[in-house]
Write a structure and sequence with these properties.
The complex is a heterotrimer. Chain A is an all-alpha fold. Chain A is built from twelve helices and two strands, in the order H-H-H-H-H-E-E-H-H-H-H-H-H-H. Chain A has helices at residues 2-5, 9-40, 47-65, 69-90, 100-122, 148-170, 172-182, 184-189, 194-216, 228-241, 246-266, 274-285, and strands at 138-140, 145-147. Chain A has a two-stranded antiparallel sheet with strand order 1-2. By secondary structure, chain B is α/β, with parallel strands linked by helices. In chain B, 43% of the residues lie in helices and 20% in strands. Chain B has helices at residues 2-20, 43-57, 77-91, 102-115, 145-158, 172-187, 206-215, 227-238, 255-261, 263-266, 281-293, 301-320, 325-334, 383-386; strands at residues 24-32, 64-72, 95-98, 118-121, 138-140, 163-169, 191-198, 219-223, 247-250, 270-273, 337-339, 343-347, 353-354, 357-362, 375-381. In chain B, helix 8 (227-238) packs across helix 9. Chain C is an all-alpha fold. The chains are: A mainly alpha, B alpha/beta, C mainly alpha. The A-C interface holds A 43, 91, 94-95, 97-102, 105-106, 108-117, 119-120, 232, 235-236, 239, 243, 269-270, 272-273, 276-277, 279-280, 283-284, 287 and C 1-4, 66, 113, 116-117, 119-121, 124-125, 127-129, 131-132, 134-135, 138-139, 249, 253, 256, 260, 288-300, 302-304, 307.
């Protein structure tokens, strides 16, 4: 049967597995974005630049401080999250009472600044970063050769996504957060420091983006533009999944990876825009997204 | 009013005096990508190369005053053609140099032709510049898609790589590179097993590499450039492509790309270039002087081409003693070229600069003796064989016969 | 939560008409003499983008709809206009009209799809549709991929006036821009415009008053797309080039920037914004990536402290609508 489609089943499985790996990045990134939008109503256009900062800081940590990948995995997300927290306190928080548009424009401007500064400093050819020695090599799965590092990426993202989902949906901290978004005044009246909660949540979302950047550094070219074209795809994922839904963005992220993987086999030129076609269809049929709550 | 008349008269006298002293004043514009994917292989380095040419030629002493300006075309044909137009209309630029990125080069080629100035292109790959789009005002230095295809394609087929699979960037340049190389491979007796087109710019090539591995083609050719090539090579190393026995051919790779990749990842890659800093004593001497002023980065072939092209232009200027475009262009084509970087060569009627091309292979890390020691020379393709034959290009300037 | 329109000084219909007439006269005068002082090609670029920004502002500032994909109409019109002039041999004015008509058609189809949703979802649909146009531009042979359509002939206006000379073409472009601006002014200050503003400020109330909000929104969407297309089609003739830059989403971002800097919801704002941004890009061209950084800083400063934009600020100071 598969021969009719023109591709043997093993090759198909290989492509699907690769798609799943790419989906991991989409999942972590859209998770961060969904948290920030779903819970804070901020359209964080800086997300792509924060992802890129994660990768660049990983490189810098090795280049200037000699600290390896494993240190970077912990340190870099915290570092970038801290920067995110500062921007939130200084700039973004002043826009909460205004139209969403302004938050979007502000974060878009911030992204331009970050990208431009790093481009001036480091050029665009890409900074070399190798796969950490513990994760080199791979296994021949029969239908394809799977590099160990890529397997690691899938594992980490699944763990992180599930942990985040669990925290937000099942713990009391998550409950406070969700309550605070729906009715900040009431929650504040209960004595919970809502602005601080909001800031920490923004930091969490940014940290997730940076984590994706650390994961990306050994396999994708670390260059200042790496987040720029990715950001609109991630937005599309979040919109399809449902702007408020954590689970939605995780599932859609992995799902998009799979669909993109299939597209690369049958119609590779279109693999860049298949997400947008899906988004238009979903938005017309189910306006709140696949898992979203109707506003 | 009287003061103005006196001033005007004085100016007139001064200019006629300077004319008799044969003081030529020219303005050169280096137009390239200063902030995007090609900023490392050309960028500020090309401006430096042009300056070095002016200094080495001792233009001041020979009565030629040269001013050099530069701008960033951002790899966009509209920006590039705008700057070229403004430079010529407003700033009095006489010669435009460099211009990597074929789409921009073609647009600038048109503007320069319309305004009858000179265009010495060093960075672009489009063989159309000496083909259907050829112009009496344009010299295409360094390299083009035909020369690259011919170099890498023929050589690899001769070495046993007779089945090919292409990973091509889905835009005009990528298609052209794939087309030219396919033709060469088939002519040399090889077989094309397939091709896959990836969106430009791409970031993840794992899927396409997997498809390439599945075909078991002996050669996987990358018909793309810049960041795409770097990413593809990096990921090929990750997926063990070369360990599996398939050879990777980068159809357009610069020394700056290899520098960005590192030898561990790029080792074994076969590529064609027109210049390498470590080729001979003359190139070494010049490159070390260049690197000292370029943050210890060795020159790429594009930057070398800017130096050599500027030098040749200045020689022609000295000989003709005039800025007139047609005269200078004729002189440049009449005089054989000779510089320490490309050796001896000539400029053909269609504007194509002829010189030897070189087939290189990237060294293994243990074979390299120091920074920038990246290539070993596999073979030299003599100039007369390296470029598309004069009559085959459909250039209207060349009479068929 | 305040909306975009709150930054605009609220005006009663008819107020400020005197002032506006004077401004139009002064503008006409400036347009007439400008090419003798400033490089005409630069001026034409400013005018094309000014028209683009004004068209965008019609949708955002007065319609209250943020479109992330306006480059689609600008770029598609640019390609059709270029192709018509170069390959089909259309006379210049017909080439521009074909481009504009294409943009109108695209606006109708995309608008009908997009206005079914609101807010950020509306914006995302417009972005997605624009990306489809970008993809189509890369795939279709006639667009020439990243080379674009080059060597577009400037031709003759109405078969009589050769447009090869920059100054002659400038006057044609200036006339197109001025006509476009006048049209936008009339639209805004008409009963249609009043209803539009009502819908923007409070859609449920407008519907309860009996107005078919979706009809009005679609109408302004198509108008905005058409005028954006006019700008794109003209641009292709001026620069004799249509390229992928015109359909990229970053172009959509730039027009937002121009409108924001100039003044959202003001008539004369976007034109000033276009002048500022195009000039900046022009004079800082040799600084490479610093242009991106500066544009980012302008975005941030405008959003944080300068939301009304240049003309909006002036309007606030003089307490007159602009």
């Amino acid at each position: 049967m598969f021969e009719l489609i023109g591709i043997p089943p093993q090759a198909l499985f290989g492509q699907l597995l690769l798609g799943l790996i790419n989906g991991s990045f989409y999942a972590i990134l859209s998770l961060g974005l969904a948290i920030i939008f779903g819970l804070l109503n901020i359209i964080n256009f800086t997300h792509g630049a924060q992802y890129m900062l994660g990768a660049v800081f990983t490189w810098m940590l090795l280049q200037y401080a000699g600290l390896n990948y494993w240190v970077a995995l912990i340190v870099v997300p915290i570092l970038v999250a801290a920067i995110g927290v500062v921007t939130e306190r200084l700039l973004i928080s002043r826009l909460y009472d205004l139209d969403h548009l302004y938050g979007l424009l502000l974060t878009f401007g911030l992204a331009l600044i970050i990208q431009g500064l790093l481009r001036n400093q480091y050029g665009i050819s890409g900074l070399p970063y190798s796969v950490p020695s513990q994760l080199t090599g791979g296994h021949n799965l029969g239908f394809m050769f799977l590099p160990n590092y890529r397997g690691w990426v899938v594992a980490v993202s699944l763990v992180v996504c599930l942990a985040t989902w669990f925290t937000i949906e099942k713990t009391s901290l998550g409950a406070y957060l969700r309550a605070a978004t729906e009715n900040p005044t009431l929650v504040q009246a209960f004595g919970i420091n809502v602005p601080r909660l909001v800031t920490l949540t923004y930091g969490l979302g940014v940290g997730l983006a940076a984590l994706a950047g650390v994961l990306a550094a050994p396999i994708y070219s670390v260059n200042p533009n790496m987040g720029a074209d990715l950001i609109i795809v991630v937005f599309a994922v979040v919109v399809i999944g449902g702007m408020g839904s954590i689970l939605g963005s995780i599932v859609t992220g992995f799902g998009l990876g799979l669909i993109e993987g299939l597209t690369k086999v049958f119609y590779p030129e279109a693999s860049g825009i298949v997400i947008f076609v899906i988004m238009v269809i979903v938005l017309l049929v189910r306006p709140a997204g696949l898992f979203g709550r109707a506003a | 009013m009287k003061v103005r008349l006196v001033l005007a008269a004085a100016l007139l006298a001064a200019t006629s005096l300077s004319a008799s002293a044969q003081q030529l004043s020219v303005k050169l514009g280096v137009l390239n990508d200063r902030s995007g994917i090609y900023s490392d292989l050309a960028g500020e380095g090309s401006v430096l190369a042009a300056r070095m040419a002016v200094e080495d030629f001792e233009a001041e002493k020979k009565g030629i005053k040269v001013e050099i300006i530069s701008a960033d075309h951002q790899n966009k044909p509209d920006v590039g053609s705008n700057i070229a137009r403004q430079w010529i209309d407003q700033e009095g630029v006489d010669v435009i140099l460099d211009v990597p990125t074929s789409s921009v080069a073609l647009a600038v080629n048109q503007v320069v032709k319309e305004k009858n100035k000179i265009f010495i292109n060093s960075g672009a790959a489009a063989s159309d510049l000496t083909g259907p789009q050829c112009s009496p005002n344009t010299v295409h230095w360094t390299y083009d898609t035909w020369a690259l295809a011919n170099g890498t394609g023929t050589a690899m087929v001769k070495n046993g790589g007779n089945t090919w699979f292409f990973i091509t960037a889905d835009y005009a340049f990528g298609h052209a590179l794939e087309r030219d190389t396919s033709a060469v491979v088939v002519k040399a007796g090889g077989k094309i097993l397939g091709a896959v087109r990836h969106p430009f710019p791409g970031s993840d090539f794992s899927s396409f590499l997997l498809q390439a591995q599945a075909t078991k083609a002996k050669v996987i050719a990358l018909a793309n450039a810049g960041g795409d090539t770097i990413n593809a090579i990096k990921q090929a190393s990750e997926f063990g492509v070369t360990q599996g026995g398939q050879a990777l051919a980068g159809l357009l790779v610069f020394a700056s790309d290899v520098h960005a990749l590192g030898l561990k990842t790029a080792q074994g890659l076969v590529l064609t270039e027109a210049f390498y800093w470590d080729l001979n004593d003359k190139t070494r001497e010049w490159s070390k002087r260049f690197a000292a002023r370029n943050g210890q980065k060795m020159p790429t072939m594009v930057q070398a081409g800017v130096y050599a092209g500027t030098l040749h232009y200045l020689k022609a200027l000295e000989a003709t003693k005039t800025k007139d475009t047609a005269t200078v262009m004729a002189k440049m084509k009449e005089m054989p070229t000779d510089d320490p970087l490309f050796g001896k060569g000539e400029i053909r009627a269609d504007g194509r600069k002829i010189h030897d091309m070189y087939l290189f292979q990237v060294k293994k890390p243990e074979e390299s003796k120091g920074p920038w020691d990246y290539y070993k020379l596999l073979s030299t393709i003599p100039g007369k064989d390296a470029f598309r034959p004069l009559g085959e290009g459909d250039c209207p300037l060349v009479k068929k016969g | 939560m305040t909306t975009i329109s709150d930054s605009e000084p609220h005006a009663r219909p008819g107020e400020g008409e005197r002032l506006h007439q004077i401004i139009f006269l002064v503008l006409a005068g400036l347009l007439l003499v400008a090419p003798f002082f400033v490089y005409p090609v630069f001026l034409m670029k400013v005018l094309c983008f000014a028209l683009f920004a004004c068209a965008f502002n019609l949708l955002l500032g007065y319609g209250g709809l943020l479109s992330f994909g306006h480059a689609a109409y600008f770029g598609a019109a640019s390609y059709i206009s270029a192709h018509a002039a170069k390959v089909w041999g259309f006379p210049t004015e017909l080439a521009i009209l074909s481009g504009t008509a294409t943009a109108a058609l695209l606006g109708l189809v995309f608008g009908a799809l997009a206005i079914r949703r609101q807010g950020i979802y509306f914006a995302m649909i417009t972005l997605a549709l624009a990306q489809l146009v970008f993809f189509a531009s890369v795939q279709f042979k006639f667009t020439g991929g990243e080379d674009g359509i080059q060597q577009v002939p400037r031709g003759k206006l109405l078969g009589l006036l050769p447009l090869g000379d920059d100054r002659t073409l400038y006057y044609v472009v200036a006339a197109i821009f001025f006509a476009g601006l006048l049209l936008i002014y009339r639209i805004i200050h008409s009963p249609f415009g009043q209803v539009l503003k009502a819908i923007r400020d409070n859609e449920p109330r407008a519907i309860s008053l009996g107005y078919r909000a979706s009809r009005y929104k679609l109408a302004v969407f198509v108008l905005s797309a058409t005028l954006a297309g006019l700008a794109g089609a003209t641009k292709a003739i001026v620069f004799q080039l249509a390229s992928l830059t015109d359909v990229q989403w970053t172009m959509s971002g730039e027009v937002v920037l121009m409108t924001l800097v100039g003044g959202l919801g003001t008539v004369f704002g976007p034109m000033i914004g276009a002048l500022v941004i195009v000039s900046m890009q022009n004079y800082l061209a040799s600084f490479g990536a610093w242009v991106t950084v500066i544009q980012g800083c302008i975005f941030v400063i405008c959003v944080m402290m300068f939301r009304e934009g240049i003309v909006g600020k002036i309007a606030q100071i003089f307490k007159k609508p602009l």
